[in-house]
Amino acid sequence: MPTNARSGNRQATHAGGVVYRLNRRTTPEMLLVTARVDPTVWVLPKGHIERGESSEDTAVREVFEEAGVTARVVEFLTTSRPVVRGVSQQIDFFLMERLAERDATEGRRIAWLDEATAIRRITHDLFREVLLQAFARLAGNGGGER
User: Fold this and answer.
1) Which of 4, 13, 87, 90 is the most exposed place for a label (fewest CB within 10 A)?
2) In this structure, is residue 114 part of a structural domain?
3) Which parts of 1-144 fold into alpha helices (H)?
């Protein structure tokens, strides 16, 4: 069963969400968004942690801003350490459950995808690994918390 565990990592520079919803067959679908700089690149919603903001709060905010999705943090998932345009980032990712949706404000495209399609569509290998962890966690939890 998912917990509300936090990373406890105060070194994170960014945070993001691996957001799921359950389709009619109760199969999880994950949220991907297009990158701001290159709309042909599919990524997980994430962004800079603002001063005074927790990683969890950043993940919730970024998911809403980039995708128009209101989601709640289910549990801490993992920390990734990519180098983006020559700058090291440390990203706390959280498994999140979709609560509601509306049009995104940043003009990005979004997609809700099953496991096989999401793994094929996501552009970066590092984020593919994060997605795989999220699908594995949900499979171990009987499809996630409801």
Assistant:
1) 87
2) yes
3) 55-67, 115-121, 125-140
Tell me how far the alpha carbon of residue 95 is from its chain's centroid: 7
Give the strand pairing for 46-48 and 42-43. Answer: unpaired
Lookup result for tokens 């993992």: 78
Bridge partners of residue 30, in order along the sequence: 20, 113
Q: Which residues of the chain have pLDDT under 50?
A: 1-9, 142-146
The torsion defined by the Cα of 97, 121, 129 and 30, in degrees rounded to 10, comes to: 10
Query: What's the whole-model pTM score?
Result: 0.85
Domain that holds residue 115: 14-140
Q: What is the CATH number of the domain that holds 82?
A: 3.90.79.10
Confirm whether 7 is domain-assigned.
no
pLDDT tens by residue, 57-83: 999 999 999 999 999 999 999 999 887
Cα–Cα distance between 25 and 22 in angstroms, integer? 7
**Structural domain count, the chain:** 1
Query: What would the pLDDT profile of 41-52 be if each residue is shown by its tens digit?
Result: 999 999 999 999
Pull the structure tokens for residue 63.
Answer: 């998911």
Q: Nearest Cα to 72, choosing from 92, 85, 57, 51?
A: 57
